[in-house]
Specification:
Elements (H helix, E strand, L loop, with lengths): L1 H28 L8 E3 L2 E2 L5 H16 L3 E5 L2 E5 L1 H4 L2 E2 L1 H12 L4 H10 L5 E3 L3 E2 L2 H15 L23 E4 L1 H12 L6 E3 L2 E4 L5 H7 L2 E6 L4 E6 L2 E7 L2 E2 L8 E4 L2 E4 L3 E2 L13 E2 L8 E8 L2 E6 L8 E3 L3 E4 H8 L7 E5 L1
Parallel strand pairs: 1-6, 3-9, 11-23, 14-21, 20-22
Antiparallel strand pairs: 1-2, 3-4, 5-7, 8-10, 11-12, 12-13, 15-23, 16-19, 17-18, 19-20
Helix pairs in contact: 1-5, 2-4, 6-7
């Protein structure tokens, strides 16, 4: 019995030694192979030798990372090249990390995995070096291009236009968030474009508020003999007019309609050109040149109707703005007291 036991023990020890040698040999055979299930970012390198993994990482990681990173905002693109970024992908370092993850388990666990076709679920972070200074410089460049203060809606009238400037939101780049997005894009071989996160600041005066503030506006182009009626900042109609003759020009500037009358009397200015009529009041009728309507805006000057249709399109008045009677009646009903009027050449 003793002899048989010794033989059995010897056989068992021999088998264990053979198993250990086989396990060691199997482990050695896989020492240059990355375990199934290991990934470097989005690149699956599981089951590959180090040379195969290097080729794959060069093609699917290093080369794509040479493409520029792009920030987009409102249709504009801002690009950061890998050269400016001084970007370098450490492929060998990533392979070493993948191998380390593949061999992180104990020998029996590794051997069992080899024998059963098991896997290691592990993702290796990409090992990428780049210049933080270059990234900060790019961020500053983007912010300078994108950032803008809020702009209030305004009007800057001219003879033929209100030159309405619409309101615009202010924009401020959220620098820390953009930096985080860029870092993610820099390290991703597939997602190289990010949108710029911004805060928006509303203007104090919106376009709608400006339109409400100027429901009616008149502009007069003396050189073209045209009066334009604007409502809610939009052109409604253009009328042919007569303006003041040389030496008695219709006064340029911006005023408001401060007097409105139907069938007004003519208060003749006390001026030399008026002759014997100076200082008199001419009631409505054939002798009154101010026909149908009156809209005064400055020191005796105003808009009125005339039956001298031939004077329209010329510089013929003594400072007033003449319109045909149908036109002045139409305009009168659309222009409230206080409406602004701009007169220029």
């Amino acid at each position: 019995m003793g002899r048989r036991l010794q033989i059995a023990l010897a056989a068992a020890v021999g088998a264990l030694l053979l198993l250990a040698v086989g396990a060691y040999a199997l482990d050695r055979a896989n020492s240059d192979k990355i375990a199934t299930g290991v990934r470097v970012a989005d690149v699956d390198v599981g089951g590959l030798s180090t040379d195969q993994a290097r080729t794959k990482l060069d093609a699917h990681m290093a080369k794509p990372l040479e493409k520029p990173v792009t920030v987009t905002f409102e249709g504009t693109k801002y690009t950061l090249s890998s050269k400016r970024l001084e970007l370098h992908a450490d492929v060998d370092g990533m392979i070493d990390s993948a191998l380390e993850a593949s061999r992180s388990d104990a020998l029996p666990t590794r051997v069992w995995r080899y024998a059963t076709g098991g896997s290691v679920d592990r993702e290796i972070a990409p090992q990428i070096d780049y210049s933080s200074h270059a990234l900060d410089g790019f961020l500053n460049d983007v912010a300078k291009q994108v950032n803008r203060p809020a702009r209030d809606a305004t009007v800057s009238p001219a003879p033929a236009s209100l030159n309405a400037v619409p309101a615009q939101d202010g924009v401020s780049v959220r620098a820390d968030e953009l930096r985080s997005r860029l870092r993610g894009a820099i390290e991703s071989p597939t997602h190289r474009t990010v949108s710029a996160p911004v805060d928006r600041v509303k203007p104090k005066v919106t376009t709608d508020q400006l339109a409400a503030a100027y429901p009616t506006f008149i502009t007069i182009d003396r050189a073209a003999f045209q009066l334009r009626l604007w409502q809610n900042l939009k052109l409604v109609k253009t009328y042919t007019i007569a303006v003041g003759q040389a030496g008695l020009e219709t006064p340029a500037g911006q005023y408001t309609i401060d007097d409105k009358q139907v069938n007004p009397s003519w208060h003749v200015p006390d001026s030399a050109w008026a002759g014997d009529l100076a200082g008199r009041v001419i009631p409505p009728g054939p002798a009154d040149p101010i026909k149908a309507r009156w809209m005064g805006f400055y020191s005796g000057a105003g808009i009125h109707g005339t039956d001298e249709i031939s004077s329209l399109g010329t510089a013929a008045s003594h400072g007033c703005v003449r319109m045909s009677i149908p036109d002045v009646e139409e305009l009168y009903d659309q222009v409230p007291l206080g409406a602004p009027i701009y007169i220029g050449d």
